[in-house]
Amino acid sequence: MKDRWRPAWVLAAALFVVNVIARVVIKLGLDGDDAAADRVSLAMFLVIAAILAVLAFRWGQDRPVARWAGDVAAAVGIAVLLTVLVGPLLVGQNPFGGDLGTLLAQAGLYLSAAASGVLVGFLTLTALGRDHRSRMLKRYAEIKAAKPHRPVRR
User: Is the dihedral of CA 63, 66, 72, 75 positive or negative?
Assistant: First the structure.
């Protein structure tokens, strides 16, 4: 069972590491410069979206949507919780120091970036006809076309 969820845990850890790197860069290099901190945060969200787009494109070729979407949703959920609750602690901030709106806005931005990345990756894969379902339908059509037509006897 641990092998089943290993990709989700690895993905969650990778997404959390991207957030930690952005927080450390903001804390050490850009402390006090809000405009630069906003640019680093935007870059972080773009990297997260790109990681998930590539992953959706790759996993969507080999696996049905129901399987990889569950893995991605679980990984993103874990990564959001780690980012919102543990991430601030790593740079010496209180995760509950701000108001609830800030906490929810951060989680909402994270989920929006993640959803857009997955959507771009999967829609690109589907548009190219390389997704799991399209491949299965193509294989089915080829098998049906390869069988000779049986004459009907009455």
Answer: negative
Q: Which residue has the tokens 């997260």?
A: 48
Round to the nearest angstrom and report the end-to-end CA distance of the chain: 54
3-state helix, strand, coil split of the chain in percent (to 5) is: 80, 0, 20
Q: For 34, phi and psi rounded to 5 degrees?
A: -70, -35
Tally DSSP H helices, then E strands, for the chain.
6, 0
> Which pTM does this prediction carry?
0.83
Helix-helix angle 34-62:132-146, to 10 degrees = 20
**74 pLDDT higher than 80:** yes
Q: Which of 23, 13, 22, 30 is nearest to 76 (CA)?
A: 13
Asked if residues 84 and 103 have their Cβ atoms less than 8 Å apart, the reply is yes
pLDDT in tens, 96-115: 777 778 788 888 999 999 99
Report the pLDDT averaged over residues 79-90: 87
Instruction: In whole angstroms, give the CA distance from residue 40 to residue 54.
Output: 21
What is the chain's Cα-based Rg? 21
The DSSP call for residue 96 is T
